[in-house]
Every structure is written in structure tokens, then in C-alpha cells.
Amino acid sequence: MGVDSSTQSCKVVIADAATGRIVRSGRAPHPDGTSVDPEAWWHALQQAIADAGGMDDVEAWSVGGQQHGMVALDAGGAVIRDALLWNDTRSGGAASDLIAEFGADALAERTGLVPVASFTITKLRWLRDAEPDNAARVAAVALPHDWLTWRLRGFGPDRPDLGELVTDRSDASGTGYWSPATGEYDRELLAAALGHDAVLPRVLGATEYVTDADGRRVGPGAGDNAGAALGVGAATGDVVVSIGTSGTAFAVSETRTIDPTGTVAGFADAAGGFLPLVATLNAARVLDATARLLGVDHAGLTDLAAAAEPGSGGVVLVPWFEGERTPNLPTARASLEGLSLQNTTRENLARAAVEGMLAGLATGVDAIRGLGVEARRVLLVGGAAQNAAVAAVAAQVFDVPVAVPAPGEYVALGAARQAAGVLAGALPDWPVEMHRAAASDPHPDIRTAYDAVAQRRAADLR
Length: 462
Fold this sequence. Notes:
This protein is of the alpha/beta class. It contains 15 helices and 22 strands. It has helices spanning 38-51, 92-102, 104-111, 120-130, 132-137, 144-152, 169-172, 187-194, 224-231, 284-294, 298-306, 346-369, 388-397, 410-424, 444-461; strands at 2-5, 9-15, 22-29, 35-36, 60-65, 71-73, 83-84, 140-142, 166-168, 202-204, 210-211, 217-218, 222-223, 238-243, 247-251, 265-268, 274-280, 316-318, 335-337, 377-381, 402-405, 434-439. The strands form six sheets. Strands 1, 2, 3, 5, 11, 12 and 13 form a seven-stranded mixed beta sheet that branches. A seven-stranded mixed beta sheet has the order 16-17-15-14-20-21-22, with helices on both faces. A two-stranded antiparallel ribbon has the order 4-7. The longest helix is centred in the C-terminal third of the chain and has 24 residues, at 346-369. The protein is globular, with a radius of gyration of 22 Å.
């Protein structure tokens, strides 16, 4: 069994350990908001398991989940306050404070990260400063997947063994107080954030396991991006570009990366390697907004974009509708340039939206490659990846072959593959169906035009 406890919902897949064939599945919704009672995740997990037909025939299981969320526990194993999710931005000032105290270069060297509001370390510093009484009660800090694993193994307020909390390298690497170089927690940074030391989950190896109350093997779990990498079978040289509400680009690498600018987060993966990652704020919602403007649905947007020539007749959309994280321009707004009486058509506007969204993600891929990481193939995932226009333009914007895996719950499938690995002693090679085969149709003029406008806009904002 593999679990994906994401921001919006909990998905469960039950798969055949030998082949990866999904036998059955289930899901349940999560509440909205950036601050959530973890009990809601626990109830959703139980509902999703029931929806998937239960666990009677399950021999091993593993949980993947949203990264960075802060689950603070007291000495009795009770949750102290609602968990702050990755997308809760109230700790932005705490991130600046930590950088001022330790320095961006030193933090990047020690943890692979330069703090931003997403990371657990900044949420703990916020808790220390904003809710000192709650901070003083913290006996253990877990991430969403750590806490759900602990609960499903039979622990909690009725059995509060904090020493049984476990995690994996990928999720530990997103805390801001774990070292990819040593594989150990940086206790000085934890204390600087929280104000004191605390119990942290034991970091399991890639195929190391614990057991649940029924004797089933339980895998280490993974952060969502690392789980997706397992699910799509990404290997060294692959870059996974995920197009959801936000966008991510992450590469499987055998060596760690250090980026003092903070553009590339130096995460670890769930298989013993590394997962350098870049995030953008503006992804699928760019297409949503453009479709609304043009009065069409997504199929209509695809048809319009397909009718325009590469380069959109000179129309360039820099899609920083909600500010941007890559580049770091939180107050930015979108801009549309290059319009003339001749090229202002619905077709060109539709294609410019697709080109702008993908060019922004390609900038992230360039940042990863700039740290010496090889990119031989782009795997395009997420709901928008199934859009024919997006796939076609991606083959033109990225200068390496692009492949689109068939639609699937790849985080949950990656967790299931990890669970199969703890049974076999090594990750199985499960086949991944490709919705569209690898292709490359480079049009460097698209990136040249986009980069010129984006760089000028960024310079103006700075």
C-alpha cells in the first residue's frame, strides 16, 4: 500500500508488489487552509484506506506526504496546535532572521537550503517568537508523513512513544535542520529555531523498515516530490517537471548541490541520492486565467494555442500573476508585451500563456543544470501535462527530449514501490506507461524572446 497525503486530499493505492499493477485505490478530502489540525489527515487516511478496501491483504506499506509541515507534539504525544503547512507564509520574517543570524552561505553548506517561509525551521522560529508557551511545550517535531506513519503503526496520545517516530532522507532534507552531507540533524539550528532541543524522527535508509502492530513492514516514506520521482521511475539524468497549482522542477542526481542564492533547494531523494529542486508559483493557474479571459475551457485553449505559430507572433507573457519565487520577486505581477494590431489574436494569446508558463519552468531547469546536474530527459507530470498543447510546446521550450507519463497518482505509487522495496530488499523495476513518447523540437527563439522580457522586468522590480 502506498499513501499520498497531499495538501488537498489523501490518496491510497494497493499495488501488486512484483509488477506494480494497481489492484484498487481510495481517496478522501482534506480541509482547506494553510493551518490544519493533523487529526483531519488521520481521519482522511482511515477513510481512504476503507475506500480502497482495507489492508487485510497488505504485506507492507509506506506513506508519502506534503513536505515541510510542522507537527508539534507534547510529551504525551498530543498535537499542540494546528500544523502549519508548506504554503503558510507567516514565517517569512523568521526566515529572514535565521539568514541574518547564520548567513545564507553557511546555511546552504550545512543544510542544502536557504530558509524561506515554506521550510519547517522557519515555522519553528515563528512558534518560538509568536507562541512561546506552545514552543516551550514541544517535546517532538514531526512532518506530516512522519506523524501519519507513527499513528498508523499504532502510536499516539494513547501510546505516546516519541522514540518510534521515523522519517526518510527526502523529508528530513526539507526541514532546514538536517545535513545532506552527514545524514544527521543539525541540533544547533533546531535549538536556534525552537529555543530548545526536541525529539526528531529517526531517519531510515532507503530500504530500511519498521513494523506496525500487525507485523507488516513499514517503509521510511517520502516527501511528495521524492515520492513522485520513485513513482515515475526517474533516474540520474531525468528532470521531473510537475505542473500543478504551483510548478516544480527537480532532478535525480548522484551528488549534492549547494546554492547560496536559495534558487535551488538541495533536497535529498528517497533512494540514497539527491533531488535538487526549483519551485515556481505560477503554473496551471496561468492556463486557467487565460482560458477565462478568452472565454473557453481547457480544450478550447488547447485548440487556440495549437493554431498559433511557435513564438506566438512575437507576443510574450511573463506569467508572474501571484508574484514569483523563481526568480524571487514576491511583489511582481504578470506582463504582456510585444502586441501589435496584427499579432493580437486569441490564438497568439493562448499560445503565449503556454509558452510563458513553460519558459518559467525552463528557467528553473537551467538553474539546476547551472549547478552541474545533468539533464538528459524531461518527464512532464501533473494535470496540465496531459494537455496536448502543453506537451507540444514543452518539446519546443526544453532543449532535451520530453516524455509525458500516463496520468496516475505517482506519489502514492512511489510510496507503494518503496513498500515493495522493503519486502524485496531493493526497489523493484515497475514499468511506467508513457502517454507521449520522448520528443524534442527545439525552438530557441521562444526562450530568447521570453528571457529578454523576463530579465528586463526583473531588473525593473529590483
